[in-house]
Design brief:
400 residues; mainly beta; Thrombin, subunit H; six-stranded antiparallel beta barrel; six-stranded antiparallel β-barrel; 12% helix; 4 helices
Amino acid sequence: MKRNKAIILIFFLFVIFLYVCNITNIPSRVILMNNEKLRINTLIGLDVKTNYDDVIETWKSGEVETSNMTVSLLGTIPVKEVSVTRLPEINVVPLGNLIGLRMYTKGVLVVGMSEIQSEDNKAVKPYEGSSIKEGDTIVEINDYKIDSIETLRDVVNSSDGNDLIIKYERDGTLLTSTITPVKSDDEYKIGLWVRDSATGVGTISFYVPETGQFAALGHGILDVDTGDLIDIESGELVTSKVINIDKAKVGEPGEIRGSISSGSFLGEVNSNTDFGIYGDLSNLSSFNVDVNNSVEVATRDEIEIGDAVILCDLDGNGVEEYKIEVQNLELNNNYDNKSMKIKVVDDRLMEKTGGIICGMSGSPILQNGKLIGVVTNVLVSNPEVGYGVFADLMIKEMMK
């Protein structure tokens, strides 16, 4: 009898756990494209119902409808409120041009640690005993704002060996620790390797004429040492010149090699996210496009398995259109940039690149005259195949 009661209790607690997890995973805010269906996955007994009148907000030049909705248990017990924002119809100008990026971190990013040879020839680790680790971002030392490697070096070197109170960020949380610098080679050091900027090339995806905003890459820029998304303070979008193309092979991703050393300023980068790079474009003329040739952003329900095209610039002679196939769709995917699987079926593209290669990330994907997504990743074991992120995910990220 006691054993049966224990089993029933465990089962009851497990069911409660499932419902708590499901309720927790329901987002507090949902953004929908015009005509997009509301998709909230709930367990049996949980209902989502509108409980307030629609509210009209403003998004740049368009109107935004926001409905407050309630998730209720058994139709009577409210357990969570969800704000559902429906965007107006949005038209964008697909681009596909190769661009360069210069991004500057918020503070300086810790990318490594090393021993210091002190003046008495001892190998010491000044950071040992502190809580700082790789991937942390140092933002302040002894009340001095740290915005570059040079600033950090000056503050540390002027410490005269006294304790440094270091403020740093980890996963959005501000923390504090202390390091005592060590004198080596006539200057004080703390044994941390840091970085304050990142550069690279990629493809700009689209431009929104009504707002002047752009989106690029379809994925974020990660630090090469830590693998973490770089938390940027500011950045620049610049022109880039194709130097050469390393063709893809099975097991070896190819790459577009480009130069940005003499790139002209195109716009400002203001966010680096898991779904792309975003900012404000101020020099559209460099892309030689007609803003009147805009297209609608497709909802997921409009995307079909089958023929599509991508736009990209592979030789510096302008953007060209290449044929692909959409092979698979993950319609409920809102958590990463692998929304659809695509395959290159254009002999010209295979001849030039061997498939999807680094630098093509951000190439817009069009189907039936609408933007459905952008290229994000390649399947290294088969360069003909890669992934794309839904265009609506990039628009929604732009809205945040």
